[in-house]
Amino acid sequence: MPTVLAIDDERSVRESYRLILSENYRVLLAEHADAAFRVLDTTHVDLILLDLMMPGLSGIPLLKKLRSYTDAPIVIVTALRSVPTAVEAMKSGAREFLIKPFDVEELQSVIERTLKEEQLSRELRARRASEACTFEDIVGNSPALKEVLGLARRAADVDSTVLITGESGTGKDLLARAIHYAGRRSNGPFVTVSCCAIPATLFESELFGYEKGAFTDARERHIGRIQIADKGTLFLDEIGEMPRETQAKLLRAVQERQIFPVGSTKSIELDVRYICATNRNLEEAVAAGIFREDLYYRINVLAIEIPPLRRRREDIPLLAQHFLEKHAPRVHARAKGFRSDALAALAAYDWPGNVRELENLIERVLVHHNDVEVISETQVKTLLPTNGHSQPFVWSELEGLPLEEATRRLERHLILRALQRANYVQLRAAELLGTTRRILKYKMDQLGIADKPPDEVRENDKNSVAFFSHEERKKER
To answer: Quick one: DSSP state of residue 436?
Structure first.
């Protein structure tokens, strides 16, 4: 039950608060400022009702002191009918302003609305705090990573569009978050759009929003992701998978800083910073007619390439220890570190799934060997894939595992088998699995599966990938 503190020097008003609110709230009463601060010293309060005209400390000075003393929202309830006072009170931190004598239903409505808004605000702050990422959160000391972080820090100081490239699992989303939270937009929203996870037919509606009645199922107005990112950052992950027909509208939004929701003739001015990421070679995609050349040049203002993990092997021990400390408490493992031979085995592997694959492996090792204090080479190699390909599947390995982990392992095995049979042409693999390439790519990213085997892809394979990607675009259109 929320706690409401009512501060008023009139006894009749205090008793009215008790009668009106006690059914739904815990009501605490204070007749002056000193009594109110004694309550706040010992009790958590969810909302304060404050009279501005009282003996002793009162008015705006009391409001300001309360704001510095507690985070609880304050609703002014006063007989003082002064517009300047109301304006000053709102500027000083009051959430609402009611005039005595107040209407009972209005008071209840204001309290309910204010508490709900405060709860949503707390949830938003908590979510931002959990999503926040700094450059210090990116683990590694290799020269290659230091160069990337240097470029990213410079990108954080400006509002220019950033294009982050790199293989799947290298941490492009982590770097994008770090750029956002290190810049002037850190207090604004960070909105992620996974371009490979949205069906082509819904892309425009998701990005730009739509008006009520814009199409058959548009029963109410929908705000698009770009508008949600106003005053913040829009992160377009895997932008190379965006349908070509949507690319032209995105180009206009980036250039003109405005959007037209579906079904609307009025533009909406927006202040959005764009960060894009892709594991594709967009220049090849442009040459194949899959990606618009003008959009490529517009988003490729500040280019940052994250090297694959095999090109910064000196970071592997640091990352392995980081993931051990992250996951060991969650899976109730006793491990505190790795033997040197285990770290050598990790460093010798090529990591086609990059950092994401390393994290998944460390978690898997901890689950399988949760009773050891130091991870050995044998315990690592038992679970380490052979050359990035799937191992023979053993059903008994799923026994005793949580459903989510067992499902994840089975999905990974089936996808790797399909990719091998399809020579890593994702459209063919998706057809073998009875799904679409977009959903397959989304699953591959989730499971840390690389887009190609660790050995170099032959030139004709590259052409096949480009051809089938183009064929899939035609099918979707």
So the answer is: -
Distance of alpha carbon 176 from alpha carbon 193, whole angstroms: 12
Asked which of 109, 126, 143 is the last residue of a domain, the reply is 126
Residue with the two structure tokens 């709900």: 116
DSSP string, 300-318: -SEEEEPPPGGG-GGGHHH
| Per-residue pLDDT reduced to its tens digit, 83-99 | 787 788 888 888 888 88
**Buried b / exposed e across 189-213, counting CB within 10 Å, b at 16+?**
bbbbbbbbbbebeebbbbbbbbbee
CA 36 to CA 182: how far, in whole Å? 39
Six token digits for residue 451: 């887009």
The confidence band for 450, taking pLDDT boundaries of 50, 70 and 90, is confident
> Which of the listed residues 307, 325, 359 is the one where a domain comes to its end?
307
Does the pLDDT at position 357 exceed 60?
A: yes
- Which pLDDT tens digit goes with each residue over 332-345? 999 999 999 999 99
User: If you average pLDDT over residues 396-414, what whole number do you get?
Assistant: 74
Q: How many domains does the chain have?
A: 3
Question: Which domain, by its residues, includes 168?
Answer: 135-307
Cα(274)–Cα(228) distance, integer angstroms: 13
Cβ atoms < 10 Å from Cβ of 401: 14
Q: Are residues 90 and 172 in the same domain?
A: no
Whether residue 78 is found in the same domain as residue 185: no
Question: 166 — alpha (psi -120 to 50), left (phi > 0) or beta?
Answer: left
Using alpha carbons, select from 303, 245, 253, 260 the residue that is nearest to residue 278. Answer: 303
The amino acid at residue 324 is: L
Exposed/middle/buried for 375, CB within 10 Å: 0-12, 13-18, 19+?
buried
**CA 32 distance to own-chain centroid:** 45
Q: What is the CATH number of the domain that holds 190?
A: 3.40.50.300
| 431 vs 257, residue with greater confidence | 257
Neighbour-count burial of 49, counting CB atoms closer than 10 A to its CB (0-12 exposed, 13-18 middle, 19+ buried) = buried
Residues 468 and 342 in one domain: yes
pTM above 0.85, yes or no: no
What residues pair up with 190 in beta bridges, in sequence order?
233
Task: Work out whether strand 233-237 and strand 222-223 pair parallel, antiparallel, or are unpaired.
Answer: unpaired
Per the model's pLDDT, the better-predicted residue between 155 and 427 turns out to be 155
A 10 A CB-CB count for 256 gives 11
- For 77-115, letters b (16+ CB in 10 Å) and e give bbeeeeeebbeebeebebbbbbeeebeeeebbebbeebb
| Same domain membership, residue 336 and residue 451 | yes
Do 100 and 207 have their domain in common?
no
